[in-house]
Amino acid sequence: SALGARGEAVRLQLQGEELRLQEESVRLHQINIYLSDRISLHRRLPERWNPLCKEKKYDYDNLPRTSVIIAFYNEAWSTLLRTVYSVLETSPDILLEEVILVDDYSDREHLKERLASELSGLPKVRLIRANKREGLVRARLLGASAARGDVLTFLDCHCECHEGWLEPLLQRIHEEESAVVCPVIDVIDWNTFEYLGNSGEPQIGGFDWRLVFTWHTVPERERLRMRSPVDVIRSPTMAGGLFAVSKKYFEYLGSYDTGMEVWGGENLEFSFRIWQCGGTLETHPCSHVGHVFPKQAPYSRNKALANSVRAAEVWMDEFKELYYHRNPRARLEPFGDVTERKQLRAKLQCKDFKWFLETVYPELHVPEDRPGFFGMLQNKGLKDYCFDYNPPDENQIVGHQVILYLCHGMGQNQ
């Protein structure tokens, strides 16, 4: 059978020039593109959803139609095109208004004429090109402002959609316009292209006090609220790449914060805003989309710090201090003007962050950073040394020795 068919892992035994080309493709994209180029752009995926999902019935005539928006920058040919074909081949025609590709000022040759001509033969696909590098947030907004669908569905540019992924998202938004709904994100291995989907209970999004996104199991209180294993699951935050939202509601909520650069941090800001301003953020267990998580981020996230600071300044009230304590550099980071975002918060009469912590994310431990008991302990004798606590792994963070270590002034473990 064809390479990678039904989401099977592929391990090519390469040597010499071929091996060099494969390694080069990983260096360039942080994804094994040498392999991706040899896998069909139309491959089928294995079934990875709860069998109850197949029993759901939809009233197709009454569901809203969606514009699928895919922003990309210097993406490889095969991963980008596989995403597009996957959307076209798994979305019911009656529900798909269009697929909008937003080219964020790519400079690679294959994304110019060749891409335009490939897409021109496809139904419902539009290509919009930015005339300078905008970054993910503003590139997505270019797509959103051109979109004609009632619902905006944002996908990353290296995804593959599981059969039946779209209907549950649109059905939920049809029931509840203020719901922002995410698919379950299944991992596609960056090196073997194995589809590692899971039909078990999905995880939900959270964050820690450094404003880093985290994954969690569904808490007991949420299980009690759900009426069935294929009910939507409320999630405090979203990973950010893949979600559907009513176009009207997205605009009402103030779309994205255009002061945010490149990517990183925008997902938490949007999550806080959805909840604090009266919406709900949910994951639908019947909607599965595979996503290739690159070996590491292909471009730097140095702008992510300013984005996180914007989120903290606008939405977190006094709790922003907990963030600054854990990330002292953030206090010094220029983050631009947030006056408009604060006005938006006032206009929409959004709730405070204390409400969010108590109601939406009570599982998050709120540490007591008592004044006078916070900061580094410096040694008066060995002036350059501080107490440092560096547990060997994340899962066992208590019970290790406190050591002396050169003071670095970055907070965190000192």
From TrEMBL:
Pathway: Protein modification; protein glycosylation
Cofactor(s) the protein requires to work: Mn(2+)
GO cellular component terms listed in the entry, alphabetical order: Golgi membrane
Keywords linked to the UniProt accession: Disulfide bond, Glycosyltransferase, Golgi apparatus, Lectin, Manganese, Membrane, Metal-binding, Signal-anchor, Transferase, Transmembrane, Transmembrane helix
EC numbers: 2.4.1.-
UniProt feature coiled coil, ranges: none
Annotated Glycosyltransferase 2-like domain residues: 67-250
Gene Ontology molecular functions: carbohydrate binding; metal ion binding; polypeptide N-acetylgalactosaminyltransferase activity
Subcellular location: Golgi apparatus membrane
Gene: GALNT12
Origin superkingdom: Eukaryota
Protein's GO biological process: protein O-linked glycosylation via N-acetyl-galactosamine
Organism lineage: Eukaryota, Metazoa, Chordata, Craniata, Vertebrata
Family note: Belongs to the glycosyltransferase 2 family. GalNAc-T subfamily.
UniProt membrane topology term: Single-pass type II membrane protein
Catalytic activity: L-seryl-[protein] + UDP-N-acetyl-alpha-D-galactosamine = a 3-O-[N-acetyl-alpha-D-galactosaminyl]-L-seryl-[protein] + UDP + H(+); L-threonyl-[protein] + UDP-N-acetyl-alpha-D-galactosamine = a 3-O-[N-acetyl-alpha-D-galactosaminyl]-L-threonyl-[protein] + UDP + H(+)
Record's protein name: Polypeptide N-acetylgalactosaminyltransferase
EC class (word): transferase
